[in-house]
Amino acid sequence: MITTVLLSIGVVFLAELGDKSQLMALTFALRHRWWVVLGGIATATAAVHLISVGIGYFLGAALPTRAISLIAAMTFLGVGLWTVREHFGAATNDEPEPKTLRTNTAPFFVVLSAFLLAELGDRTMFATAALATDYDWVGVWLGSTIGMVAADALAIAVGILVGKHLPERAIGVGSGLLFLYFGAATLLGAAAPAVNGLIVAAVASAAPAVAIGVLLTRRTIAVRQSRTGKPGTFTESAQLAADRFPGQRGR
Q1: Among 4-8, 13-17, 90-94, where is mean pLDDT lowest?
Q2: What is the pLDDT of residue 97?
Q3: pTM score over 0.70
Q4: In the chain, pLDDT over 90 holds for what percent of residues?
Q5: Is 136 in contact with 4 (CB distance < 8 Å)?
Q6: Which end of the chain has less Cβ packing within 10 Å, N or C?
Q7: In a 3-state reduction of DSSP, which class is residue 73?
Q8: DSSP 19-87
Q9: What is the biggest distance separating any 2 CA atoms in the chain, rounded to whole angstroms?
């Protein structure tokens, strides 16, 4: 039992290093409290790995992995666009700092649902199922869950350290761009699974670049319009005329 747990921890921990799950954990850690993110990850991981060791290869073959990947991609793209637009909008207008998901939504369920969608049909799920065919399923389940949570905890620690040195708006924009990248990469992976991973990563990086370009353009236009000062009422017009022709005030 102990050997199975340790083996599963090592296999899953190594498999998760550099995976998208770590990047997602880092992104969530920039916006939410670390124990909320870790709790959501642990719950989602335990559920997914319980499914994988319980039914194994049969469930893996029957899962509509492409449909799940498409849903996950749309979710990531939607969250990314909303987050980037929210923080860029606040930077353009003279409005207070936007409230993040810490205050106006349930972060735990956001993290939980995101990791459930991301991990269903992922390589870690199949690796766990493969281990469960040769070893005790309880030990594989415990070890694989601990291994993945440990790997993502490293990413959360990095997110905490980075978040202490970045302003709230930079964190919001950065996390939104990462979600756009995740969404584009997941969408490309589901649409063209035979394409090389490096090509998918290169093409997916265009999504946040395009979003930044569009939002910067809109911000530039908004700033120019605010500087021209288009008067909308009679009072505003009279005040503007008085400022332009101060010598006419006493006549």
Answers
A1: 90-94
A2: 46
A3: no
A4: 7
A5: yes
A6: C
A7: helix
A8: SHHHHHHHHHHTTS-HHHHHHHHHHHHHHHHHHHHHHTHHHHHHS-HHHHHHHHHHHHHHHHHHHHHHH
A9: 98
